Amino acid sequence: MKKTAFEKSIDPASQTLLQKAENEGIETAWDRYEQQLPQCSFGQLGVCCRNCNMGPCRIDPFGEGTEKGVCGATADIIVARNLLRMIAAGAAAHSDHARDAVLTFKKMSEGEAGSYKIKDEAKLFSLASEYGIPAEGKSREEVAVELANAMLLEFGKQNGPVLCTKRAPGVRLRLWSELGIEPRGIDREIVECMHRTHIGVDNNATHILLQGLRTGISDGWGGSMIATDVQDILFGTPEPKKSTVNLGVLSLEKVNLIVHGHEPILSEMIVEAAENPELLELAKEKGASGINVVGICCTGNETLMRHGTPIAGNFLQQELAVITGAVEAMVVDVQCIMPSLGGLTGCYHTKFISTSPKADFPGTVRMEFHEEKAYETAKEIVRAAVENFPNRNREKVSIPEEKQECMAGFSVEAILNALGGSPDPLIEAIAGGAVKGIGAVVGCNNVKVQHNYGHVNLVKELIKNNVLVVTTGCNAIACAEAGLLVPEAAVLAGEGLKGICEALGIPPVLHMGSCVDISRILVLASAIANRMGVDISDLPAAGAAPEWMSEKAVSIGVYVVSSGIYTVLGTIPPVLGSQEVTALLTKGLDSVVGASFAVEPDPFKAAKMMLEHIDKKRKALGLK
Ligand code: BF8
């Protein structure tokens, strides 16, 4: 049975546009998902192997048919190998993003990317000292070049540990070292995953999964952390800012330009170019009252965190934004961009502009973006959007009314500032019971579940029970749309958390950034654990990804658990075909890294599981 717009999303703006899509005969991800049903159950269980050309092989999970692939691989081996490849792909995406950010930083420092500047000098020098680079007698550019080179070495080095792992508590580091899962070099771990999963290499599920943990750690405490650090130097460390979210941020009178994807290298320049007086003048000439840059997905989170740029929506709203008929340009770089946008933009006047040398899509205008002439290219892109304004077909335009205020920009530095410079007040609030614990809720949207339902309800349950929530990615956008990212949302929190939020003037849900910024959550967890003299796994904290779908999310889940944080997944990973892998992920890991995964699609039950875990940790710490 076809789902109604109300069943597809809990968000009224999205429901309106889903209805518009249906009226206009426009296809969306939800329609394509329905066309895929029933989905392949071998794929769902993870028991299909295409790693060599004797296959594809698939295993009958009930033991009534084929039990081994042609090479003899069992369900356990196949599931573990497939999972490892997912982790590798996710870690590669975050880390390659980081590499590009560092290369831009290097070019800027060498005077070859004049559009970029050092925005956070203090962070530059503190990172230089962390990387062991003496700064005396050197210009800041010289220090920056040395830092960029040192960061680049983290990708290719052969012997670890990856430097930023030192930010983890000492006991955690020793545990990783004893387990042999301390990452050696970011690229090395990803390459080794591909090697191990080639036919005839690693055929022991536990052994394969340990490499998964090591690769995940090299993402969270390596690639993602470097991306966050270098972006803070280049674009500024976020501070709390107000903005607005949801599809209603699109403007009837202005040129609407959406930046979508992940790398702020591009979107930072677009935000700047949209303020160019010549282009603003051109917009007026074309009949528009201004230029409205808005974000989608994690690029949106990056510009929101640093500039307060509005966000039009999260992953499942990218098509809906185009369906408003009011978007002059959809400008994309990498990751989470649906190839369907090509055909879809063709139904409207929207220009679909791809900019990354790495990523192209059907139906795009290519405007390749290179750091050397970043601002010039950004201006050309904005100009293309402005010139497209007169082509907007007013009869096709329908922008939902819904837009919601939000507060974002909670970097670790900003959180510590709000707390008066140290995590102590938060620790005291936890110890005294006003704050029961910390919930890290992150991740994507997934058409398999109702859009934003899991995100919003899980977070509401947590804050109601005095759990302070930190959020990133598409969860942060869902929470913003539901009005949870404003200080006034404290009324939805339990008495203790409400009091803290009111005293500090902060929301009960803190937006810490994009998905690579989950590294900020790790640093915060580490700071709290160090201050309390315990490991991260001892903290009254739990994680969740209620609507996850991407391979990046798999890598994230793995490094969060490897860091000692129990994590509840809202959609089922393709591992149930192996009892061994399922048992390892949901139980076995506990005795290895002090945390494990759970799967629970119902957000109310998931919240209960997280709360029980937090209570258990509180008890173990001797807290009431
Ligand atoms: O980068 S944008 S859909 S993958 S959560 Fe998920 Fe959203 Fe993608 Fe994480 Ni961020």
UniProtKB/TrEMBL annotation:
CDD domains: CODH. Transmembrane segments: none annotated. [Ni-4Fe-4S] cluster binds at residues 262, 298, 336, 444, 474, 515. Keywords: 4Fe-4S, Iron, Iron-sulfur, Metal-binding, Nickel, Oxidoreductase. It is an enzyme of class 1 (oxidoreductase). It holds the Pfam family Prismane. One of its GO terms (biological process) is generation of precursor metabolites and energy. Signal peptide: none annotated. It catalyses: CO + 2 oxidized [2Fe-2S]-[ferredoxin] + H2O = 2 reduced [2Fe-2S]-[ferredoxin] + CO2 + 2 H(+). [4Fe-4S] cluster 2 binds at residues 49, 52, 57, 71. [4Fe-4S] cluster 1 binds at residues 40, 48. InterPro entries: CO_DH_a-bundle, CODH, HCP/CODH, Prismane-like_a/b-sand, Prismane-like_sf. Its cofactor is [4Fe-4S] cluster; [Ni-4Fe-5S] cluster. Its EC number is 1.2.7.4. GO terms for molecular function: 4 iron, 4 sulfur cluster binding; anaerobic carbon-monoxide dehydrogenase activity; hydroxylamine reductase activity; nickel cation binding; peroxidase activity. PANTHER family: CARBON MONOXIDE DEHYDROGENASE, HYDROXYLAMINE REDUCTASE. Homodimer. CODH oxidizes carbon monoxide coupled, via CooF, to the reduction of a hydrogen cation by a hydrogenase (possibly CooH). NCBIfam families: CO_DH_cata. Belongs to the Ni-containing carbon monoxide dehydrogenase family. This is Carbon monoxide dehydrogenase. It comes from Methanosarcina lacustris Z-7289.
